[in-house]
Amino acid sequence: MAALNHPRVRKPWRASEARPRRWIGALGILVLVLVWQGTAVLVADASTLAPPMDVIRRFFEMLVHPFAGSTLGWHVIVSLGRFASGFSLAVVVGVPLGLTMSWFPRFEAVITPFFNFFRFIAPIAWVPFAILWFGTGFGGPVLIIFSGAFAPCVIGSYGGGKLTEVRLLEAARTVGAGNFKIITDVILPSAIPSIVAALRIAAGNAWQSLVGAELIVASSGVAYTMVRGQMNRTITVVMVGMIAIGIVGLIMEWLFRRLEVAVYRRFGSYAAL
After folding, report:
1. Handedness of CA 52, 56, 58, 62 (dihedral sign)
2. CB of 98 within 8 A of CB of 157?
3. How far apart are CA 19 and CA 252, in angstroms?
4. Dihedral sign of CA atoms 74, 78, 80, 84 in order
5. Any residues with CB less than 8 A from the CB of 21 and at least 6 apart, and which?
6. Does residue 249 sit in helix, strand or coil?
7. CA 50 vs CA 40, 73, 196, 237, 271: distances in Å
8. Strand, coil or helix: 45
9. How confident is the model at residue 69, as a pLDDT?
10. What pairs with residue 70 in β-bridges?
11. Spatial CA neighbour of 91 closest among 157, 159, 156, 153
12. 20 to 30 A from 227, CA-CA: which of 4, 36, 69, 258?
């Protein structure tokens, strides 16, 4: 994380600069599809890799006809509901915790060992607890999503809080501001660019954690359709699930990048992780 004038920090995204990249990206996708088609026809077995047109056809069929109890669109909505719950919980808990740690050294000293222990536990390691505590209900995946998003939220807000200019903190003390006012009125606005950058990473971790959770402890959702497709040995369903997961992930990344640009324009600084 660094200020905009740092020589190694990315400049904000501009549409004019991205046009050549779009052509390169489109060419890359075309090459991937051609390689996929050639591999499916010449090398792979039909039960292990389906041609692109078969997968596209199944994708649109699943948008209309139910599979594993619901259409693909509804499975995506269910997954997004779980994602929103776990991600929001991580933000609500993690951001205030990181800001508080950045301001109170003693609190930081107490929390840091526990936090470091927690953040090195992979989200998938919480699956046994999720099953024991919640079964295949709503709470299990939310717990796993929370564990994936929590650490980036804390680290981003803590780092942003530590970057708050000393003169602003001294000015707040001079006018008699208390700890709560300093955190909410001085440290939080200063840390917002870093927090937003961290949220983009947290969202990616949360979405990946959701996929792992639904593969094991869910009875609905887009990743659950992949499990059912694997059980039925229907490779097109498995690949449709992967494509749907990737599309949603790309949309999330685009939205968070737009949010970063908006924050840059509002606060005049740009944080990059």
Report:
1. positive
2. yes
3. 20
4. positive
5. none
6. helix
7. 6, 22, 39, 10, 42
8. coil
9. 84
10. 67
11. 153
12. 36
Beta carbons within 8 Å of 264's beta carbon, 6+ residues apart: 4, 12, 193, 270
Confidence (pLDDT) at 159: 92
Residue 51, pLDDT score: 85
Amino acid at 238: V
In which residue ranges of the chain is pLDDT below 70?
Answer: 1-22, 43-47, 136, 268-273
Residue 108: closest CA among 188, 163, 164, 162: 162
* Total-model pTM: 0.81
Q: Please state which CATH number belongs to domain 47-267.
A: 1.10.3720.10
What DSSP string runs through 139-188?
HHHHHHHHHHHHHHHHHHHHHHHHTS-HHHHHHHHHTT--HHHHIIIIIH
Find the helix or strand (DSSP H, E) in which 264 lies.
Answer: helix 235-267
Tell me, what amino acid is at 252?
A: M
* Per-residue model confidence (pLDDT) at position 237: 92
Give the position of tokens 């301001």: 103
pLDDT at 4: 40
Q: What's the pLDDT at 58? A: 92
Say if residues 72 and 63 touch (Cβ distance below 8 Å): yes
Tell me how far apart the alpha carbons of residues 70 and 64 are, in angstroms, rounded to a whole number.
9
Q: Which amino acid is at 60?
A: F
